[in-house]
Amino acid sequence: MKGKKSEMTGPLAGHVRSGRRYVPALGDLIQMEDWIRDDLPDLVWPALLLAHRGTGAYRDFVHWQRAVQQDLAELVDARKLADGLDGRLSSLEILDSQHPDVRASITQRAAEHDLLPEPVADVLATYPDRPARWLAESELRPPDQPDIDLLMKAVLDAMTDGHREAIIKCLHTWSAVQAGTFRSDEQTRELLKPYPNDPSTRSQADSAIRASWGAMKGVHLLKDGARFDRSIEWAKVFWGMNSISTSCVRRRDVESAGEDEAGSEEGAANSANDHPQGGDHLERLAMDLIASYVEALETAPFRLYDNEVQEVTAGLVMRAGREVVTALGYPALWSSEHGAHVNRTLVEVQILVQ
To answer: In the Cβ-directed half-sphere of 129, how many Cα atoms lie within 13 Å?
Structure first.
């Protein structure tokens, strides 16, 4: 900056400059969705890398951005380069579609900076429909336990560690700074100059970066309403596949009294099935059907964006199932006078589900 000595020690050293800020409409900010659900799948590459190598791996990512921008400076517009190297898989896919030489530079520089170590590439290889599949060319396969463990760490770190979240979200800023397209107010520039190497300002800078995330997305959406359509499409695939490969854990399976609880449940089931007045085989069949339905829910893809439908449907079916099991266990209800409400429940649930 003119007339002042630069005191920057972070990746932005020598790059930040002042300029005009873009302010999105308030309505765009209000409609922003949860970034973990919508954006983290698109940023899974840097999230996995940081989970595998530690937060300090961001430096290699920044160096990779600089190297690719230098390679493509004469071929691709600076702003498109900045947006394309923000860490998103969908951004790489868009950038690759704009020029045939982009892919070679991205993959070569990624290998030079060790951004695709084997554990990270292995996790990416478990998703056949991810954007920029060419980034980590390997044979598709189902995830094994090390893959699931690394993925779980990457997601949990992004959800629970505010600094890790800020580092991932700052990748776009670092890319824009190096491309010469970054604009901000003076206060933000001062915070970003030494980031993240100054412990005294790191927490404040983390907060500023996280707070500006929605504004950044708003700017992109104002320019192009379809900018994140591919990202959302990929997020649905990502979470759906994860819900299949990582099964639900029932609460009773992790409680300390697991064996005692299982024994008491088995005894209760046997007591119900041995009802002296008959109907035990039908009661057992109904309970088996309910158990099969619950198992199907646990192994089916999770409906990330309309989960209310799945949750309401499951509640209706389980309620009807409990009514049937109760009625089958008490022969006194086996009459039109006392059992008609069970038939009515079944019919109502069928209508509501349809």
So the answer is: 13
d(CA 184, CA 82): 15
Nearest to 173 by CA among 144, 150, 196, 203: 196
Q: Which residues of 210-249 are buried (b: 16+ CB within 10 A; e: fewer)?
A: bebbbebbbbbbeeeeebbebbbebbbbbbebbbeeeeee
CA 104 to chain centre: 28
For 252, how many CA atoms within 13 A lie in the half-sphere containing its CB? 8
Question: Could you read off the pLDDT tens digit of each residue along the chain, which spans 354 residues?
Answer: 333 333 445 654 444 433 333 333 333 333 445 899 899 999 999 999 999 999 999 999 999 999 999 999 999 999 999 999 999 999 999 999 988 889 999 999 999 999 999 999 999 999 988 999 999 877 778 899 999 999 999 999 999 999 999 999 999 999 999 999 998 889 898 999 999 999 999 999 999 999 998 888 888 889 888 989 999 999 988 988 887 777 665 555 555 545 554 555 554 445 444 444 445 778 888 888 888 888 777 777 766 667 788 888 889 998 888 888 888 888 888 888 888 888 888 899 899 888
The radius of gyration of the chain from alpha carbons, rounded to an integer in Å, stands at 27
Domain ranges across the chain: 26-245, 252-353
- 286 in Cβ contact with 321 (< 8 Å): yes
